[in-house]
Design brief:
Helix content is 36%, strand content 20%. It starts with 9 loop residues before the first strand and ends with a strand. By secondary structure, the chain is an alpha+beta fold. The N terminus is likely disordered. Strands 39, 40, 41, 42, 43, 46, 47, 48 and 49 form a 9-stranded antiparallel beta sheet that branches. Strands 34-33-36-35-37-38 form a 6-stranded mixed beta sheet, with helices on both faces. It has a 4-stranded antiparallel beta sheet with strand order 3-30-29-28, with no helix packed on it. α17 packs parallel to α19 and α36 packs across α39.
């Protein structure tokens, strides 16, 4: 991942640009930022435990008491938070993983995203620290050691424990993989004969060696391996021990040398060229071969707790006990060339590597000769290297002399290989092969396959081509790893050398698909044989690439071409005779890579897309800006913000007049959450479009909106959204009350959501996202509860004076705890805003605001993201929702029905019945419990709408609920009835009267009048309480068709036609009932009472003789006069039912409203009367309309049905008042005389 823009970066040394840096195992960097001794002082309370280089050595990692600190440019730029202290930290060689050792666990992190990948909890006690960590050189395994006296090996990619637990003797303070990864050394604190160093087989965990060297407790490892893995260096107080002959425990020996300090625990690091040793206040440097000290120690003012050395050996980091990190530049510390590149089987100084890889053996020989003359010890690597160079120069005797000296100093595979090359140069083939076989004796087992590959190349050089190719084909492993690639590349080179192009093409194609991150083995082969086996000469490269291209392998041709071109220096390229072809094919390859990059991006193969664009850019295209922009966009998708920014900035620098670089940069900044910078860059983008010289670019400006336009749209949307929110909300983050009515726009603009939204809206089509994002930001959660009977709920003043909900004293008032628990639950659900009627309505504020809050409360609950209901009287685990006091309160009815989402909690704020549904309206158990109690369908609870229930059903739901203030019995139903009544406390029972008056006037629903009990002073036809609506009204039953025809036949004989038609005309001509100014105008049929008498058994029971009905019995709630019978009447108010309806007739015949069933087969025509003078034929043929007399008879037949009657008493001014009755007055008598009844509109007080 590229370094962040405008930060100090680290650059690679130029030498590795010649030898494809990705092929070097131990790649090295130098820094432009640490050019002298720099001190970084941390927080005084933050203890430093470990240090490491990270991110290509661009940053320093520090394991500390506060987590893992990322340090850049002498400043802590980020902290990776962990659960405790970090005692050890290591970074894999491929730069992909960070591993930390903590209390009782090992954690693997993604080095790019800093996300935790694996938590390895194999180590036992939580209180025992893991202070020893190491990652294998191939970046696949991690070994850990802990105070639990065990060593364990894990897969770094899967987190699986591969080996262990391996038992040690005491606390493990250091672990180290051997260079090849086949062994692990572990150091434990030694007490008497327990502890010391053990060497284990890294594959099986078998103990190979136990070395009794006194080890003291330390946080940095006292272990280091030699470059070839043949020696193990162990540091103990006052000395370093070099242990040799590690293969056999019985023959192992060790040589000690005294260091600069004998009183302190010792830690060491082997850089390959020198050993750095930390003890006490200082760090000293030692030659691993002569054991002599190099230069003077570096002394600190405080004890060194941990340290490390950069891979190139040019920088030293020390963490001291006074909480300082000190970075030292080591370039001037040593006069001898100590900085080497570690390759398989070889170690070469950087001074020699440069001319060697440039193909200049004469200069390389001179550099190596100078190193041999000036070094203070005989190095077998130096003599072996010069032997190889002399073999390239065909100086066979010099080669034999140097190879022999190298083998005499120390037997090694590279010494035998150099000697074999000399014999081969002298045509002594058998001697060469015999000498080469000796290399197997002195190598690690892991190098056997690699040596067999080199031997195959030796056979090829000797002329045995077919034999060599056969051997290499046999060596290619079946698994996909670096050796597969190495063998495949060598095989392809052999085919090319033999001009076998078809197999060469297939083999190169296979190799290009493998393409590892690094293959240092090929670099070793190239150095040994003096020929770049991973490179081609230009004629061969041209032949291969054109053949691949013509054969349809265009992608493979482009990749091979780019790969080979990238490995050859620009100076060499400039001297090629075929430069024109290179330029032309480069253009082809750039176009191909761009094409394949686009296809990969479209198919979500993002890494492949990046690789293709990178390949195209490596070919020096004439206009790299479009490629940089495209790669930047891919980096954005994979969340590599720094890389995306780097590419966008490069594109802008190349072509500052092109707007798309700014667009890509804006997208990267936005994705990285740098919103202010993103908006600024977007303004630059628009400015570039507007000032463009290209008309086509200027024309697209109308597709975009400016940040100012977006800001205006956001402000308007916030104002619109705030109108649907409560006036005051609780900010869950701060616990403060926020005035949404006045400050919503300011609140939103101060939030991160505003910057994100402003920088994300660029096109006009993006404006559609503004409304949902604003709505989501202001999503709030409401509280539904039963108020404390003593009224001690936290008020608006309580929260305001305290400053925050979180600062309320829960010990002083238990209700404060309820509000805080509510806010905690809202926060756990991921919401920012909350509303509670206790503190979000200022009861001491203006009456108009309080009343407006009451008027909008249904809407607030309806618009809430969720409503949390706390049932204070329901214990955990008990199914007692329906018996809770919450179900008896007036206001909680709308709080149950209005919200889209609701969650119930018991008295301890546990989800009711343990139900984990996010919305308890989706819980069948809870909704069934409510449905059974309320006697309405589940659907009417889940998705309530006033239109889905009749007026009488809604009144029934409210009939059993109580309120502290009698006005609230009406005000709480405003939303459920969509009422417009204005709250006015002090009007007492008139509040209910106003509500019912409005309901009757709007709905024309007569059932509101169907009740028995005490009348209201508002109007005698309205009850004093909603409790009377708990029972359903008695309505007129529909008459079945057969019965209707029978009744019509009887009525024809009973009443004259004129009387029937007269009554029909009067009833049809009645207008709707109407309420105005407390007076009810009721259309009805009036039956005057002739006489009235009390029952002898019960004085409240009256028997009345009624004109047109005969005798009617009823129970009155008040005493009635037995004289002046003309003042009492019985009225029939059910005019719509008498007239008949479309739906009733349909139900009478057993048909649902809707399409006619065309499956009826027959000749009979069935006529259905809808009470409107028309009929429908169910065979599809329209019948003739019913005559008026027939319709009138149907009406009179319905008039004879039992009905719920009202008894009215005439008042002095001809108005009426309803007579209160204890029970319903159900009239079952038949109409006896049509002339004796009246049809009129009566006015009732």
């Amino acid at each position: 991942m590229a370094a962040a823009v405008n930060r100090s970066t680290w650059t690679r040394t130029g030498i590795y640009e010649k030898l494809n840096t990705s092929l070097i195992t131990n790649t090295m960097w130098v820094t432009t930022g640490w050019n002298d001794t720099r001190k970084i002082e941390l927080n005084g309370d933050n203890t430093i435990y470990s240090v490491a280089f990270a991110d290509g050595e661009k940053h320093i990692l520090c394991g500390s008491q506060e987590g893992v600190l990322w340090i850049d440019d002498a400043q802590v730029v980020k902290t990776m938070k962990v659960s405790g202290s970090v005692f050890a930290v290591a970074v894999s060689n491929d730069g992909l993983w960070i591993v930390t050792g903590e209390f009782g666990r090992v954690v693997v992190w993604d080095a790019k995203t800093h996300d935790q990948v694996h938590e390895l909890k194999a180590h036992n006690a939580k209180k025992q620290c893991v202070s020893a960590i190491d990652v294998s050189n191939d970046s696949t395994r991690v070994v850990s050691g802990s105070d639990d006296k065990t060593v364990r090996i894990f897969s770094i990619t899967s987190g699986e424990q591969l080996v262990g637990p391996i038992q040690h003797d005491n606390f493990v303070v250091g672990v180290k993989f051997s260079p090849g990864g086949e062994r692990v050394a572990a150091a434990a604190v030694q007490v008497e004969r327990h502890g010391g160093v053990r060497v284990f087989d890294a594959r099986t965990g078998v103990n190979l060696l136990h070395i009794f060297i006194p080890i003291e407790r330390n946080l940095s490892t006292p272990l280091a391996w030699s470059n070839d893995g043949r020696k193990l260096f162990v540091a103990s107080p006052g000395k370093i021990s070099c242990v040799e002959h590690l293969q056999e425990s019985s023959t192992s020996t060790h040589v000690d040398w005294v260091i600069h300090n004998s009183d302190s625990p010792v830690s060491i690091v082997n850089n390959g060229g020198f050993i750095a040793c930390s003890a006490g206040f200082s760090v000293s440097f030692w030659d691993p071969y002569t054991h002599k000290q190099l230069g003077d120690p570096i002394v600190h003012s405080a004890v060194i707790r941990c340290f490390t050395v950069s891979r190139d050996g040019k920088h030293l980091i020390c963490g001291t006990r006074d909480q300082k990190i000190v970075v030292h530049e080591l370039s001037d510390t040593f006069t001898q060339p100590r900085f080497t590149v570690d390759l398989p089987l070889m170690h070469v100084s950087d001074a020699a590597l440069n001319p060697w890889t440039e193909g200049n053996p004469t200069r390389t020989e001179a550099v190596l000769s100078k190193e041999i003359e000036t070094m203070g010890y005989p190095s077998h690597h130096a003599f072996a290297n010069r032997a190889l160079i002399r073999a390239h120069l065909k100086q066979w005797f010099g080669t034999i002399e140097d190879a022999t000296k190298s083998l005499k100093i120390q037997p090694s595979p590279i010494g035998h290989i150099a000697l074999a090359l000399a014999y081969l140069g002298q045509d002594r083939r058998e001697a060469a092969l015999w000498e080469f076989d000796l290399a197997f004796r002195d190598c690690d087992r892991a190098d056997n396959v690699f040596l067999l590959l080199i031997k195959s190349l030796l056979l090829y050089v000797s002329g045995r081509h077919e034999d060599a190719i056969f051997r290499v084909r046999d060596l290619i492993p079946r698994k996909d790893d670096y050796l597969t690639y190495c063998c495949t590349q060598v095989l392809a080179s052999m085919y090319l050398d033999m001009e076998s192009y078809e197999p060469a093409i297939e083999t190169f194609k296979r190799a290009s698909l493998l393409a590892p991150h690094r293959c240092s083995h090929l670099a070793t082969i190239s150095l040994i044989f003096g020929k770049p086996f991973d490179l081609m000469d230009i004629p061969t490269l041209r032949r291969v690439c054109e053949t691949l291209y013509d054969a349809g392998y265009m992608k493979a041709a482009a990749e091979i071409f780019a790969k080979m071109i990238g490995k050859i220096s620009s100076e060499t390229r400039a001297n090629w005779v075929t430069t024109d072809w290179v330029m032309e094919f480069s253009k082809k390859c750039v176009a191909l890579c761009e094409h394949f990059g686009r296809l990969a991006f479209e198919s979500t193969q993002y890494e492949e897309a990046i690789a293709q664009y990178t390949t195209a850019l490596s070919l020096d295209p004439s206009d790299p800006a479009p490629l940089l922009i495209k790669r930047s966009r891919v980096h954005i998708v994979v969340e590599s913000w720094d890389d995306a920014l780097c590419d966008a900035d490069k594109a802008i620098a190349i072509d500052p007049l092109c707007p798309w670089g700014y667009e890509s940069k804006r997208a990267a900044l936005h994705s990285a959450q740098w919103y202010d910078e993103a908006v600024k860059t977007y303004r630059d983008f628009l400015s570039t479009i507007e000032s463009s010289q290209h008309p086509d670019i200027r024309r697209i400006r109308h597709n975009y909106v400016s940040p100012d336009q977006t800001n205006a749209i956001i402000s308007e949307e916030v104002r619109k959204t705030s109108k649907t929110c409560p006036f005051v909300l609780i900010d869950i983050t701060t616990g403060r009350l926020c005035d949404m009515k006045e400050r919503a726009v300011d609140i939103f603009k101060q939030s991160p959501a505003y910057g994100k939204l402003l920088s994300s809206v660029t096109r006009k089509s993006d404006c559609a996202q503004i409304a949902p994002i604003v709505a989501q930001y202001f999503a709030y959660v409401t509280l539904s509860h039963v108020w404390d009977p003593d009224g001690k709920e936290p008020s608006h003043q309580d929260v305001t004076s305290t400053g925050s909900v979180w600062d309320l004293d829960v010990s002083a008032c238990p209700m404060n705890a309820k509000l805080r628990k509510f806010c905690e639950e809202v926060r756990s659900l991921g919401h920012t805003w909350a509303w509670s009627d206790t503190c979000c309505i200022n009861k001491e504020g203006p009456e108009s605001v309080i009343n407006e809050s009451l008027m909008l409360m249904y809407q607030w609950y309806q618009n809430s993201a969720a409503t949390l209901v706390v049932l204070a009287d329901v214990k955990p685990g008990t199914k007692a929702l329906t018996s809770s006091r919450w179900m008896t309160r007036c206001w909680t009815l709308q709080e149950l029905l209005a919200p889209k989402a609701i969650r119930f909690y018991d008295c301890e704020w546990n989800p009711y019945l343990g139900d984990t549904h996010a919305n308890h309206k989706e819980s069948s158990v809870i909704i069934d419990e409510l449905s059974n109690l309320m006697d309405i369908s589940r659907g009417n609870i889940v998705t309530f709408s006033p239109d889905h229930l009749t007026v009488r059903e809604r009144l029934r739901l409210a009939s059993g609920r109580k309120a502290k203030e009698e006005e609230d019995e009406a005000y709480c139903l405003r939303g459920i009835f969509r009422s417009d009544i204005y709250p006015k406390y002090g009007e007492r029972k008139d509040a209910l009267g106003n509500l019912l008056q409005e309901i009757v006037d709007r709905s024309r629903d007569v059932t509101v009048l169907a009740w028995s009990g005490t009348p209201s002073s508002f109007n005698s036809c309205l009850p004093v309480s909603l409790a009377v609506y708990s029972q359903p009204p008695c309505t007129i039953d529909p008459i079945m068709q057969e019965d209707m025809e029978r009744r019509i036949a009887d009525l024809r004989l009973t009443f004259p036609e004129g009387h029937v038609l007269a009554i029909y005309d009067q009833i049809i001509g009645l207008g709707p009932l109407h309420f105005n100014n407390r007076r009810l105008r009721l259309p009805c049929i009036v039956f005057p009472i002739k006489s009235l008498a009390r029952s002898r058994q019960n004085v409240q029971i009256y028997r009345a003789q009624v004109f047109g009905l005969g005798e009617v019995e009823f129970m009155a709630a008040e005493s009635l006069p037995l004289t002046k019978m003309g003042d009492l009447v019985i009225v029939h108010p059910w005019i719509p039912e008498i007239r008949g309806s479309h739906d009733e007739v349909h139900r009478d015949f057993g048909h649902e409203t809707g399409p006619v069933d065309n499956s009826y087969d027959g000749d009979e025509v069935m006529d259905v009367n809808f009470g409107s003078g028309h009929s429908v034929a169910f065979n599809g043929v329209s019948p003739a309309p019913l005559d008026k007399y027939h319709r009138a008879l149907q009406l009179v037949a319905r008039l004879g049905q039992p009905f719920h009657a009202l008894i009215l008493a005439r008042q002095p001014c001809s108005e009426f008042k309803r007579v209160a009755t204890e029970n319903k007055v159900i009239v079952t008598a038949q109409v006896t005389c049509l002339k004796e009844i009246r049809v009129e509109v009566v006015e009732i007080l």
